[in-house]
């Protein structure tokens, strides 16, 4: 009985400390709270992947340009084609001098099926500038982790092929590889284009 009381008291103390700490931290964070939450989670970083010609590419090859990155897989029945369609519409809305500063890329999370040849056939269906990237399982796992991408292979007995559950965000990275904005699935192309334009022109895009 005594022991149980001690455990309960300990839990209450932990809860009080936790809430107190959070309140203190919130007060310190003040107006910068939201900004802090966005920047404290690091997104992006160095990667080594393969393009549709089978050549090795790294994030350094795109330094000085904006990257618009989407993760998915070519067998995706609905989500990926919808989002790549939105990206394509957004890219076509950009002024030419903005568009030439942006590299849109599709990084597969299913490198077992998405070979350079498969990607080479797939990406032009959406946009002529879309860069398709694949890699080894390790390379893909690493870049997916850096971009906080969740994915999971799903076996469905109704199909002879497997599907992949995956998160669906569009990442806009600036010319130094820093995250400008993360767009949720289904963001309107107008909104994408507006943020891309503002970032390329050096205006505050408003995350
Ligand atoms: Ni998909």
Give start-end ranges of low-pLDDT stretches: 22-36
Strand content: 15-25%
What is the C-level CATH assignment? Alpha Beta
How many strand units?
9
CATH A-level architecture: 3-Layer(aba) Sandwich
Q: At the fourth CATH level, what is the homologous superfamily?
A: Glutaredoxin
Briefly summarize what is shown:
The chain is an alpha/beta fold and 207 residues long.
Set out the fold topology:
Blueprint: H1 2-29, H2 33-40, E1 48-50, E2 56-58, E3 66-72, H3 79-93, H4 96-99, E4 102-108, H5 116-122, E5 131-133, H6 137-146, E6 151-154, E7 163-166, E8 169-173, E9 179-184, H7 189-200
Parallel strand pairs: 3-4, 4-5
Antiparallel strand pairs: 1-2, 3-8, 6-7, 8-9
List keywords for this structure.
9 strands, 5-stranded mixed sheet, alpha/beta, 207 residues, binds nickel (II) ion, Glutaredoxin, 41% helix
Structure write-up:
The protein has about 210 residues and is α/β, with parallel strands linked by helices. The protein has a single domain, classed as Glutaredoxin (3-Layer(aba) Sandwich), CATH 3.40.30.10. It is built from seven helices and nine strands, in the order ααβββααβαβαββββα. The strands form three sheets. The protein has a five-stranded mixed sheet. It has a two-stranded antiparallel ribbon with strand order 1-2. It has a two-stranded antiparallel sheet with strand order 6-7. A hairpin with an 8-residue loop joins strand 6 and strand 7. Helix 3 crosses helix 7. The chain is globular and about 50 Å long.
């Amino acid at each position: 009985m005594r022991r149980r009381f001690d455990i309960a008291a300990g839990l209450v103390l932990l809860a009080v400390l936790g809430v107190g700490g959070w309140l203190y931290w919130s007060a310190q964070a003040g107006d910068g709270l939201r900004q802090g939450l966005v920047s404290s989670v690091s997104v992006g970083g160095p990667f080594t992947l393969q393009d549709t010609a089978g050549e090795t590419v790294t994030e350094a090859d795109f330094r000085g340009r904006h990257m618009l990155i989407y993760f998915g897989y070519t067998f995706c029945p609905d989500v990926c084609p919808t989002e790549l369609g939105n990206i394509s519409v957004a890219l076509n809305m950009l002024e030419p001098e903005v568009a030439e500063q942006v590299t849109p890329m599709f990084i597969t999370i299913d490198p077992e099926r998405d070979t350079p040849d498969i990607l080479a056939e797939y990406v032009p269906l959406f946009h002529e500038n879309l860069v398709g990237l694949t890699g080894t399982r390790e390379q893909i796992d690493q870049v997916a982790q850096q971009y906080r991408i969740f994915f999971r292979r799903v076996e469905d007995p109704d199909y002879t092929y497997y599907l992949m559950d995956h998160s669906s965000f569009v990442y806009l990275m600036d010319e130094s590889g820093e995250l400008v904005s993360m767009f949720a699935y289904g963001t309107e192309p107008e909104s994408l284009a507006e943020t891309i334009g503002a970032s390329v022109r050096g205006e505050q895009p408003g995350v």
